[in-house]
Design a protein that fits this description.
This protein has five helices and four strands; from the N terminus they run αααββββαα. The protein starts with 6 loop residues before the first helix and ends with a helix. Helix 4 packs antiparallel against helix 5. Mean pLDDT is 81; it is low at 1-15. The protein has a four-stranded antiparallel sheet with strand order 1-2-3-4. With 258 residues, it is an alpha+beta fold. Helices cover 70% and strands 10% of the residues.
Amino acid sequence: MATLFEPSLSTSTMRPPLSSSSAPSMADSLPSINFGFDELRERMARFTHRFDDFIAEGRKRVLEERNQFRMNVAELEEDHRLKSHSLSILHQKTQAHTHLLTSQAAETAEIQTTIASLTAHQTTLTSHRAHLLSRIAAVQASINQRLAAQQAHSLYLSSQEQQNTPELDFWTSYLGLRIEGAGMVDRLKFVFTHIDERDWEREGWFELNTERRDYSVDCARPKLEGEKVERCVERLNETRDLAAFLKGMRELFVEAVK
């Protein structure tokens, strides 16, 4: 069982007499109790030192981590700035490349349109050239035919001239006839001289129209009788005897000036 503490007994027993100066003090009479304060103080000092070291280490670690975090943030910001700048450059390059592609596409379309137009024009020119070559060949063939015909006609005229020259000389010498141009392709002017015995220089002439197959006399001076002229022309168209026609026309001029 627990021992009950009796204060009256304890107090009376331990309290020294007030009048005695040589009596021991109360503190001396107390039992000596070792609470271990020095060890506790040492332990507290070691704990405080360790705690201070822990706090310092933690503060140092926090500072290092904060500095590292700031460095990381700065690096990230710099990386973000560089990447933003790179993205801006890439965006500009992309826009420039897109614009270039658009321009090239437009130029390609324009070139293709031009090529198509030139191809169509070339096709047209080729067709036109073929048509022109065909026409040139036809014209050349026609020219060759005409040249051949002209050469044949020249040969005919040359041979006919050889035959007509003596006859023309005969008409000129004995009939007093001179043949001239009438200023038109299909007309000949026949001039007779020595038709008037009173005036050998007097002339009579007429124009023979050879435009159609049936010849005609369009004009005569001096004026001749129309019926007689028509009969001479009818005989000429029927017989094609030019000598007889000229002889008949001379006789009409001789009768007209009498």
